[in-house]
Amino acid sequence: MTPTRTVRLADLTDLTQAHETVGPRAREVHQRLRAEWGPVAPGELSPDVRCWFAMGYAEFSEVIRNEEVFSRNGDNWSAVQEGRIQPDMPIYPFVTTRQNSFHNDGELRQRLRSPIDRALSRVDEHGYAAQVRGICNDLVDDMLERGEADLVQDYAVLIPLLSVAAMFGMGPEVGDSMRKAAHKVLGGGQLAQEGVIELAVEIVDHIARRRRDPREDLTSHLIDDPGLWDDNEVMEAMIVMIIAGNELTIATITQTLLLMLSDDRFAGRLRGGRLDVDQAIEEVMWRDPPCYNITPRFALRDVELGGQLIRKGDAVVPCIAAANLDPLMTGDDPWLEIGNRAHMSWSAGPHSCPAQRPGTIIVQAAVRTVVERLPEVSLAVPADRVERHTDSLSYRYPTSMPVRFVRTLS
């Protein structure tokens, strides 16, 4: 079967106009692809680089959970083996092989992932939540003093890495420089290589300081873990946590705040107490997931998926937004998903987000601080003028959100 037109990965990231959530147009595109191909559709990652899109909830789950068939290691992609993936391609940073849990499978992935899980299990969540609330309150204090704000640039983009830096025992100045480097990595191409180098320099210096002066922080826990064999593996573990969590957390915060400020029904439920902050975040995860697509998996053998024959070496892109909108999961009313946490926005399986709990703490604190301290906040521009960041193959969120509020210090 020949598709009516080639679908690019960018098409699945930019299914809506810049100001829209995953709404009617997105559903229409998903429905068209499903009607033509079923839950798995062919497409392109970039010109002449073919892939498959896993859009059905069941097919998405199969791809991300079964690493014995669908590998995360880019060395298994036929396009890499044939030399067709170049460093200037946006996809390049996600398929290069590095010594970390993100880029590997099986026993090596487990050895490199387990120290991250163990270190995160030692985080005092109550104390960490207080730290994050302090960061959010400090940023709101600055906004109140100025009397104006951009909830993206002055708030949402600053919180995640300032919070992660605190968890690693780093100062706020390091957190800001890491934020800029992490953003470069996710942009792809040459900037991604620069971003990785910048991150590595900051992290190597911090690891050296912690070897001289151990503390009760995440860095020291990773250094002490026998599963990481040298400082390079410690550094790679930290890079995984920084890159994987930063954009996801920014996007979740901004998507929630934008929905709160632009959707009267959502805002009324949230401010009226019928929808608490946790439920609001879960609803965003369903309605407008912060991560539209996750990194490709590569077939280790010929396999049938969703009625399509996937050949050994083919790339399969798990599409979160499409899987969350699978009619088999959602029905016709997205508002009915309140309380349902079966969405795939944190991914699942062996490569699921390792920092879901800290990430949730950060998002909850960021949204709750705005709700509590800026009760009369409103957009300073029409909602359809809020542009979204679209230079990533996975993430799409507002680049700016100017707001008005009552200037009172608490």
UniProtKB/TrEMBL annotation:
SUPFAM superfamilies: Cytochrome P450. Coiled coil: none annotated. GO terms for molecular function: heme binding; iron ion binding; monooxygenase activity; oxidoreductase activity, acting on paired donors, with incorporation or reduction of molecular oxygen. InterPro entries: Cyt_P450_B, Cyt_P450_sf. Belongs to the cytochrome P450 family. PANTHER family: CYTOCHROME P450 YJIB-RELATED, P450, PUTATIVE (EUROFUNG)-RELATED. This is Cytochrome P450. It comes from Nocardioides panzhihuensis.
